[in-house]
Amino acid sequence: MRLRKIKGAKEEIKAHQDYIQDIKDVRRESDATHVVLPKRFDSKKPLHIEIGMGKGQFIHTLAKKHPEINYIGIERFDSVIYRALEKMIAEPLENLFLLRMDATYINAIFDDIKVDRIYLNFSDPWPKVRHEKRRLTHPNFLVQYEALLQKGGTLELKTDNELLFSYSKEQIENYPMNVIFESKDLHQEEMENVMTEFEEKFAKEGKHIYKITAKFKEDNHG
Ligand SMILES: C[S@@+](CC[C@H](N)C(=O)[O-])C[C@H]1O[C@@H](n2cnc3c(N)ncnc32)[C@H](O)[C@@H]1O
């Protein structure tokens, strides 16, 4: 999802460093700079992150509903994350922080920070085989998520894209991880569900929403 460039987005990001950190894009993992969590975050709370949050509707809604959890929303485009920043400016939340960064080296960027849950919502499907490595459920990402997640932490993904769903399921099962929940029509399930921007759009078009929740096997953790 690439928005038209918003004039002044970079400056607004710089001006609100208590809400958002801009992590420089690098070509090599060893050049990655680190996340600095805001002092207002209570370190006793669990930490949940969304990678590729877009304009932030999902994570902002969740953070409002669950003050007992700390949240980080990650998005790589200035003009997109700017919309999430606007939500924070309009309604600041103690337990939400935004990161403008590319997730390619997420584990190096998070350094020794561990998280309890990773959300991947309507990730770009990258249907061409030559772009497979960009899919956020490619094994290069799963290996990083394993290091990033606390023991027993979960990976939760939602998509409208059947190919990304079946690709992700295959990668998750082969890793190996355990799938602990799966639905091919999430909106028919009786469970709490916070909708993302893309989810609302696809649901209006009558598309089914797929969901997988998975955990790394404990014995992988050594
Ligand atoms: C299709 S949009 C979905 C946005 C939102 N999660 C939703 O469901 O409404 C996917 C978003 O993920 C972001 N994204 C994709 N790959 C990323 C990466 N490697 N690092 C950070 N953000 C990424 C894109 O810029 C885009 O805004």
Structure description:
By secondary structure, the chain is an alpha/beta fold. The protein has a single domain, classed as Rossmann fold. The chain is built from seven helices and eight strands, in the order αββαβαβαβαβαβαβ. An eight-stranded mixed beta sheet has the order 1-4-3-2-5-6-8-7, with helices on both faces. β5, α5 and β6 form a beta-alpha-beta unit. The radius of gyration is 17 Å and the shape is globular. It starts with 8 loop residues before the first helix and ends in a 6-residue tail after the last strand. The structure holds S-adenosylmethionine (SAM). The site of S-adenosylmethionine (SAM) has 21 residues, from β3 and α7. S-adenosylmethionine (SAM) binds next to β3 and α7.
What is the strand tally? 8
**Average of the residue pLDDT scores:** 96
How would you sum up the global shape? globular
CATH architecture group name: 3-Layer(aba) Sandwich
Portion in helices: 25-40%
Work out the count of structural domains.
Answer: 1
Strand order of the largest sheet: 1-4-3-2-5-6-8-7
**What is the straight-line distance between the termini?**
38 Å
- Give the helices and strands as they follow along the chain: HEEHEHEHEHEHEHE
Question: What percentage of amino acids are in beta strands?
Answer: 15-25%
| Biggest sheet overview | 8 strands, mixed
The number of distinct helices, counting runs of at least 4 residues, comes to 7
Rg of Cα set: 17 Å
Poorly predicted regions are none
* Ligand roster: S-adenosylmethionine
SSE class = alpha/beta
Query: What is the level 1 CATH name?
Result: Alpha Beta
